[in-house]
Amino acid sequence: MTEDTLTRIAEALERMSPAPFSTPSFEAQAFVWHTGPDRLEPVTQVSRVDLDLLVGIDGARDTLLANTLQFAKGLPANNALLWGARGMGKSSVVKAVHAAVRAQGHDLKLVELQREDLPSVGRLLNMLRRAPHQFVLFCDDLSFSHDDQHYKSLKAVLDGGIEGRPDNVVLYATSNRRHLMPRDMIENERSSAINPAEAVEEKVSLSDRFGLWLGFHPCSQDAYLAMIRGYCDAHGVQISDEALRAEAIEWQATRGSRSGRVAWQFFMDLAGRKGVEIS
Q1: pLDDT digit string (tens) for 171-191?
Q2: Which of 100, 187, 208, 271 could be stapled to 276 by a disulfide with Cβ–Cβ 3.0 to 4.6 Å?
């Protein structure tokens, strides 16, 4: 090839290569981590509800708030696994706690990491390590399926490897499963491995690496109705207790379940019928 041809090839390859990752200004309060190319996308408005509106999960809410306040002050704090029933406010409480801590004057940043991007977490941690801020790394709906090796990347956040987890980063993850692995996967490991105990231990002990386990369980009918009443009072939706109870119970019956998510969905329907806009 001629020198001119080689030059054109080199220039074409340079144009095709991703731009080098630049450290963001961190002016926003929240970010979403993307790969290909690596970047932190600022979130201008976080979708969340007020902490006071999260009814029926008082213990988990208060524990997570206390842990987050410690962390925001630069004190020791634990990674947290929020596990349990669907729709009971696991992800909502993480975002609400973040807002509550910021409201107390702490410049705490929230960074959302998708499970599919866990293999890139080492690059993300290296970037956050150099930043002069405290970060809650948030991974929603975390679980692992058969032959899924992403859980090994998660250990980089929980254990930190040779460098250790950055002092300015804490991980909050939500999951429907306490042990993050499906039960049949664990049982299959036990039945087929030469040393069943050792084969299972690595996968089961992943949850043990979280200092806080916060359980979220199906709510009672009283808690379900209290959630809806709280939403109505906060947003100015007028309805009597008798009418609210009758309509909300009928709504839950049609859904076949009762949770914080179902309560919010009923409230949105009610607010729409009442002509109340929800900002």
Answers
A1: 999 988 766 655 555 455 445
A2: 271
The C-alpha atoms of residue 98 and residue 112 are separated, in whole angstroms, by: 12
Length of the chain: 279
pLDDT, tens only, 71-82:
999 999 999 999
30-216, what's its fold? Rossmann fold (3.40.50)
CA dist 68 and 74 (Å) reads 10
Partnered with residue 174 across adjacent β-strands are 82
- Going from N- to C-terminal start, the domains of the chain cover 30-216, 221-274
Token pair, residue 58, equals 């008082």
- Token pair of 53 as six digits: 């509106």
pTM more than 0.90: no
Strands (E), the chain: 30-34, 39-43, 80-84, 108-112, 134-139, 169-175, 212-216
**Structure tokens, 154:** 């998660």
